[in-house]
Amino acid sequence: MNKNVVITGANRGIGLALVKGYIAQGYQVYAVCRHSSVELNALPVITVKDVDVTSDDGINKLLRDLEQITIDVLICNAGILRDESLSELNIDTIRAQFEVNALAPLRIVSGLQAQLNSGAKVAMITSRMGSIADNCSGGRYGYRMSKAALNAASMSLSIDLKPRNIAVGIYHPGYVQTDMVNYGGDISATESASRLIDLINQLDVTETGVFKHSNGQMLPW
């Protein structure tokens, strides 16, 4: 039987590239998104759409749609980026980033935990902007804070899931050419996804809870 991978934010960017990469490796892909895309619709996957990860209804729909499967790889990739500065502090956008970037992944893993196989892998797509030690430019309050919160949650998950032989990887994808950064990145989504898949393939409980760049570099907290 094919192994099952669940990927959130799968309709575009890094998520869509991850979908393509896992198809190439023979996985049955469950592609989770709010709205599908023409490119995603053309792929041989099971699309789980109309999922708003910030709402109770959205999370409950996701859990219902996936309740009959077991999961070998769970990738929490969905995220948003907004831009706040100290002189233009927008509490609404900060809250929105916490909902999508930090709370939603935790809710998804919690809701799907019983369906994770022994030896399964959970990958959290975070950002080095969530690193406190690496912050040398300031600003981007909501994004930095929400990704730091995701990193903290991911570390707790790595401890709580380890007795079941489930490993958690915490990954910065790189500065990727996606719509989120107006395609200003220095690597393609395809290259980033390929690197991430390699890291996830290598992941086991001996490295659970490790914060890494997609190029393999260890990142500071």
Overall 3D geometry? globular
How far is it from the N-terminal to the C-terminal residue, by CA?
39 Å
Tell me the structural class.
Answer: alpha/beta
Largest sheet: 7 strands, parallel
Biggest β-sheet: strands ordered side by side in the sheet: 3-2-1-4-5-6-7
What's the pLDDT, averaged over the residues?
Answer: 94
Radius of gyration: 16 Å
Poorly predicted spans: none
Number of helices: 6
Give the total of beta strands: 7
Task: Give a written overview of the molecule.
This protein is of the alpha/beta class and 221 residues long. The chain is built from six helices and seven strands; from the N terminus they run βαβαβαβαβαβαβ. The protein has helices at 13-24, 38-41, 56-65, 91-112, 141-161, 189-202, and strands at residues 4-8, 28-32, 46-48, 71-76, 116-125, 167-172, 210-213. The chain has a seven-stranded parallel beta sheet with strand order 3-2-1-4-5-6-7, with helices on both faces. The termini are far apart.
Entry keywords:
221 residues; single chain; alpha/beta; globular; 38% helix; 6 helices; 18% strand
In short:
With 221 residues, the chain is an alpha/beta fold. The protein contains six helices and seven strands.
Helix and strand arrangement:
Elements: E1 4-8, H1 13-24, E2 28-32, H2 38-41, E3 46-48, H3 56-65, E4 71-76, H4 91-112, E5 116-125, H5 141-161, E6 167-172, H6 189-202, E7 210-213
Parallel strand pairs: 1-2, 1-4, 2-3, 4-5, 5-6, 6-7
Helix pairs in contact: 1-6, 4-5
